[in-house]
Design brief:
Helix content: 10-25%
CATH superfamily: Phosphoribosyl-AMP cyclohydrolase
CATH architecture: Roll
Order of helices and strands: HEEHEEEEEEH
Strand content: 25-35%
Strand order of the largest sheet: 2-1-6-5
Distance between the termini: 38 Å
Number of strands: 8
CATH class: Alpha Beta
Length: 149
């Protein structure tokens, strides 16, 4: 389905989708809320996930931990409806602007996966001490009720 072995100039500035999958057959996929621009999650897609996303308009990913294709929201109902799908300059990453169904996008109950902030610009880190994290979002659903775990 996808073009392969395009010259660099064609891959970078041409009008043909030719994703560059890594050695594991994956590309990075970033999903943002189409309305707010908030980053919801970063995951990976293989060729099948990308193809299904394009064909259905719903985000599909490759789960590295489960080693299987995954329709986002297939279990939780928190489906991502793709409004726009973009590819980066060398076609090794995609960015999807999505409208979301359901309450949250993170499997631990938050609106998105980037719910913690790391302090920056505070000077040298103490030897052997990790920087503290602070929550910047509240949980919006109970993952136990959704996933039964």
């Amino acid at each position: 389905m996808f073009a392969t072995n395009l010259p660099t100039r064609e891959r970078e500035e041409g009008a043909v989708l030719a994703p560059r999958f890594d050695a594991q057959g994956l590309i990075t996929a970033v999903a943002t809320d189409a309305g707010t621009g908030e980053v919801l999650m970063v995951a990976h897609m293989n060729a099948e996930a990308l193809q299904k996303t394009i064909e259905t308009g719903q985000a599909h990913y490759w789960s590295r931990s489960r080693n299987e294709l995954w329709l986002k929201g297939g279990t939780s109902g928190h489906v991502q409806h793709v409004v726009e799908l973009r590819v980066d300059c060398d076609q090794d990453a995609v960015w999807m602007k999505v409208n979301v169904g359901g309450q949250g996008q993170c499997h631990v109950g938050y609106p998105g996966c980037f719910y913690r902030a790391v302090p920056v610009g505070t000077g040298p880190l103490a030897e052997g001490k990790a920087p503290p994290l602070r929550n910047v979002a509240e949980k919006c659903y109970d993952p136990k009720a959704v996933y039964g775990k």
